[in-house]
Write a structure and sequence with these properties.
The chain has 461 residues and is of the alpha+beta class. It has helices spanning 2-18, 24-36, 38-58, 123-189, 195-230, 234-237, 260-280, 344-410, 416-450, 456-460, and strands at residues 64-80, 85-86, 93-94, 99-119, 286-308, 315-336. A hairpin with a 6-residue loop joins strand 2 and strand 3 (93-94).
Length: 461
């Protein structure tokens, strides 16, 4: 006997463990919703931009090659005052007093320059690490967004199924009232009942019809919302069977400390740490190597002087066909050192330190609130489980009361109002039972969210 009992318990326990909280269709809709979400897509694009920015920071160490070229025509009037001297044979004094010259010519130059950053003053290294932490923070917030989408989708098809349960309850009540009315009409014809009872039942039927009309409208809206969330056509969604049953949660080692919001804040704090290091290292010099090759040509140049040649009296003008230089090489190492930047770096360091303190306070505040929320939702989930059991008992009592009321009314022991009251109480009891299941399922999702366990992988297992 004990062996048989053990086998029965084993199979029951195995079925509980094997129970899936979501059907394959429901998991499919969640997957579609995650794929369709424009918020997730845009966040992914933003992450791609951050990744490219991080690559750009690291690429500062890649050598660069540039080419410059210039062509121009220039002219200038020059006024020169240099010590005068006398030509030995002609006896002409040159450069006596101020001397005016007129110069003009054409210039073409071109250069090819290669540069390579050797030492960035730790700006590249710290900047890259800060960006990586920023990317981590955004990835964690993506997990939070995915969890919110999952809750929204599950709540939507749970509401659809809850309304379908209401539809079934109303349909059952309509059948019972129709039978009651049919019998009542015969009783009126035989003088055993009054038209008052018939009218009371007709009024109850009209109320049910009104509820049904409102119910169908709400179902249509929820199907449209589910279509918007998942991209699935309403005609396909209407063929799906959703299950409204209590959510079974296995024991979890999760903690509120696993929340993606906290991980995101931790990553943000690390990003500010690297940003602080960048600011503090800003005084270090930047060193780069360079190499260049240049071509220079000054051509068709001339200088007009105020002096004339002796005897001929011709003006002394200087002409140049060209002055060319190629190739001109230069190789070396250069550095840039901000010795004093007007306290700019000091101000940036103070600002970054304040921003870091703000995020640290946000993290501490979030930890306290999320810890309280995790305890609250744990209690709420346990309470909902107990309430389901109570609501189930209330439903059974209401059903028995309804059966007794139907029998008593037919035997003339209660009035039609009491009979209809029992019908309404039963409807409410059944609906409250399924509402409580829906609330328990939402609490289960919130509980998974509270310990950072709400993701598609956990729901699929």
């Amino acid at each position: 006997m004990q062996k048989i009992l053990f086998i029965i318990l084993f199979f029951v326990f195995s079925n509980i463990l094997a129970q899936k909280n979501l059907t394959d269709h429901e998991l499919e809709l969640i997957q579609l919703g995650l794929q369709k979400s424009y918020t997730l897509k845009n966040a992914t694009y933003e992450l791609s931009i951050d990744t490219l920015e991080n690559k750009a920071i690291k690429q500062n160490f890649i050598p660069t090659l540039s080419m410059d070229g210039v062509y121009g025509y220039g002219a200038a009037d020059l006024n020169v005052d240099v010590p005068a001297f006398q030509l030995p044979i002609a006896g002409i004094d040159l450069f006596e007093g101020d001397t005016d010259f007129n110069a003009k010519g054409q210039v073409f130059s071109s250069s090819l320059t290669a540069k390579m950053l050797l030492f960035s003053g730790m700006q590249v290294s710290y900047g890259s690490k800060a960006t990586q932490e920023k990317i981590k923070a955004k990835n964690f917030m993506l997990d939070k967004e995915r969890a919110d989408i999952i809750i929204d989708i599950v709540d939507t098809f749970d509401k659809i199924e809850l309304l379908h349960k209401s539809e079934i309850i109303i349909a059952e009540s309509e059948k019972r009232l129709a039978k009651e009315k049919e019998k009542l009409i015969k009783a009126i014809e035989n003088g055993l009942a009054t038209p008052y009872d018939r009218e009371k039942i007709s009024a109850a039927e009209l109320k049910l019809a009104s509820k049904k009309t409102e119910l169908y409208g709400n179902i249509d809206l929820l199907y449209l919302k589910l279509k918007m969330l998942t991209g699935k056509e309403v005609s396909d969604l209407e063929t799906y069977n959703f299950e409204l049953k209590p959510w079974v949660l296995a024991e979890s080692n999760g903690s509120y400390l696993n929340r993606p919001e906290l991980h995101a804040l931790e990553a943000t704090i690390k990003a500010y740490d690297y940003k602080l290091k960048m600011s503090r290292a800003a005084f270090l010099p930047k060193v780069q190597a360079f190499a260049s090759m240049a071509y220079f040509n000054l051509f068709d140049a001339s200088i007009k002087t105020p002096y004339n040649l002796p005897i001929s009296g011709q003006p002394i003008n200087l002409d140049m066909n060209h002055f060319r230089s190629f190739p001109t090489y230069m190789v070396g190492v250069g550095f840039h050192w901000d010795i004093f930047s007007g306290l700019k770096h000091s101000s940036e360091t103070q600002k970054t330190s304040i921003e870091k303190n703000i995020v640290e306070n946000k993290k501490t505040d979030a930890e306290e609130k999320l810890e309280l929320y995790a305890k609250k939702i744990r209690i709420d989930f346990d309470v909902k489980n107990k309430q389901i059991a109570l609501k189930e008992k209330e439903m059974v009592v209401a059903e028995n009361t309804l059966k007794l009321a139907i029998k008593s009314y037919r035997e003339g022991l209660i009035t039609i109002s009491e009979r209809l009251e029992a019908e309404i109480n039963y409807q409410m009891a059944v609906l409250e039972y399924y509402k409580m299941i829906s609330m328990q399922r939402h609490a289960a999702l919130e509980l998974l969210l509270s310990n950072g366990s709400l993701n598609l992988n956990n729901l699929s297992n």
